[in-house]
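EI: anyone free to look at a 196-residue chain?
SC: sure, send it
EI:
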Amino acid sequence: EGCSCGVAGRCTPGSGGDAPARAPAAPAGRDAPIVEMEAVTKVYRQGVLDVQAGTLQFTGASFDNIPGGVIQGQGTIALGGATFSNAGSINPGTSPGILTVTGSVSEEASSAINIEGNGTTPGTQYDRLNVSGALTQAGALNVSLGFTPTAGDRFAILTFGSRSGQFNSVTLPSAGGLLFDTVATSGQTPDTLYLT
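SC: here you go
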């Protein structure tokens, strides 16, 4: 089953997993909404969970993005005690933007984190995924740039409380004769994976 979210603040499991579930943007002058997910939730093949703004709050036991599912947006996914397993795609932002997960994320072999960039400012010019808890790396990390950066530019594309594992594949841009690599920090709050 998929789910559909309403502005009233709860997401009710329903039929039709191809319909996007959305945490709607806040009306002008109002706080962003909080949408609660109450049951075991799955984003199905070709389903899209678009967290546009506000908070998608989980009170259930698990949240699974299966192969073919897409999680995107620039709001917050608050897991509470739920476990989050990603076997589909995570596309932070709405090209660009920052998607935040409060809790831990476990990437599976079929998963992909897709980051796009068109400048050097996070959130407004390039994507970032913030994970407050543990990030278990696997699957693919794909980074694309739509501009030519300057030598020495650095992009904080992932932040996390801790990390383990490694990506099965990393696709990095080559722009203006520059070659990129990823560098991770540890012992900071938060730890960060940089594109440099």
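EI: Residues 1-27 have pLDDT under 50 and may be disordered.
SC: 👍
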